[in-house]
Amino acid sequence: xxxxxxxxxxxxxxxxxxxxxxxxxxxxxxxxxxxxxxxxxxxxxxxxxxxxxxxxxxxxxxxxxxxxxxxxxxxxxxxxxxxxxxxxxxxxxxxxxxxxxxxxxxxxxxxxxxxxxxxxxxxxxxxxxxxxxxxxxxxxxxxxxxxxxxxxxxxxxxxxxxxxxxxxxxxxxxxxxxxxxxxxxxxxxxxxxxxxxxxxxxxxxxxxxxxxxxxxxxxxxxxxxxxxxxxxxxxxxxxxxxxxxxxxxxxxxxxxxxxxxxxxxxxxxxxxxxxxxxxxxxxxxxxxxxxxxxxxxxxxxxxxxxxxxxxxxxxxxxxxxxxxxxxxxxxxxxxxxxxxxxxxxxxxxxxxxxxxxxxxxxxxxxxxxxxxxxxxxxxxxxxxxxxxxxxxxxxxxxxxxxxxxxxxxxxxxxxxxxxxxxxxxxxxxxxxxxxxxxxxxxxxxxxxxxxxxxxxxxxxxxxxxxxxxxxxxxxxxxxxxxxxxxxxxxxxxxxxxxxxxxxxxxxxxxxxxxxxxxxxxxxxxxxxxxxxxxxxxxxxxxxxxxxxxxxxxxxxxxxxxxxxxxxxx
Length: 569
Prior knowledge:
CATH class of the largest domain: Alpha Beta
Low-confidence stretches: 1-24
Strand order of the largest sheet: 4-3-5-6-7
Number of strands: 7
Distance between the termini: 27 Å
Number of domains: 2
Helix content: 25-40%
Radius of gyration: 25 Å
Order of helices and strands: HHHHHHHHEEHEHHHEHEHEHHHEHHH
CATH architecture of the largest domain: 3-Layer(aba) Sandwich
Strand content: 5-15%
Structural class: mainly alpha
Number of helices: 20
């Protein structure tokens, strides 16, 4: 779903400074620049409260939590903006007012005034006016602040370049042979798609066929190659059945990518050096965790940044047949919808003649009804549009998937429960200082017109109902397109996205529904939600499409004995 706004504005907590320069996040009243500044300074103030220290010390504390490569950027920005920040807090102003003083927030004509933190004292002046009174004390900064965007500021410019390089493409940043498979784990590398075992040859990649049994080289990167000295036969021919190998791919949005912002970055009580230890890796993966997702998860982590075991469709395919090792592709992008996926899908890699079939999940579950626009209904995808987009997407897959592949489309998720489940709960940002609820966060992002989903995260029940009905209508259109298109190289099926079923199963296990939802954005399913969703999807495949799944490989134990972890990931 469209969480690019939160991805950008919450990353600021990792560097201690505001950062956002994407045009799709502009919004109003400063948009994402304003939200980034306000949230970051709110956390700084919470550190000051928690440790009973000055704002200067809290700014320094936050910078020192960061890995070395970010610390210098953080301190450069603090040195530049620090005088106004400190002066504002000394005057007992809130982060909202100080960000108006820094000109990242402003009051656009005709727009509602946006405020996240409650005022500490009564004033007849607007936030703009109170901010201007602070700013006038620093004329040397005034010209720079009034003309610059966030990414023009000292210390921020370098970090923006990192984002630009990582986020502008959907293929591995490091890919020497251009086959769309890389050797690095982040930046669209092996977290997203199988690791390339030879980055100097396009012919050697995950999913390739091995007609000769890989007697010398591991042509398909599944870690099985060489000769069995006792039989004189290639191991691949002995241990694998070429006809039953099957890769997996997902084309989707931030749900499939597994968008997750660590709550430790917003809760001052949990901020620490450990919370940011893997910061660069998390950033380079676009604040997504595909390596732990329901579709392509393949590792478990013990970091403080995420909680819950990994259960995925890929791991289950691997359990059935270890010859499917590394044959996964997560082609999901934060913010993708039925129109943009038509271009994103071009980063899917499959050779129709020389690769084994793929099981593809075509799953766009929110962004066709979710947006941050004030007139959110006008910006929703229509039934005709999503029908045509789905038809075009299936037609493109027919040009790249090998014969014998399978495609499962899903409908949109039912997001109608999100507001009901979370609106009155305390958000991680409100655990120190004045309590802040999810409803307040939702309303603030809506006011700035950068909400991930105005339709479902709104206090307006009628708008929520309309959004749900549109999602139902679009799901019907996806279903109809799925069975209208006549594929040549794959067969198809459709499934309603099982969000409601995941909640029901979690509750049956003794859990509360809200425990499946991301704590920071209050919108996505979290790691536990991905595990339950994977359980449901796998059972559906077993019950309804058992012929899509490979049989159990009786030689799995031999593969483990000879090749151990098959080169890992």
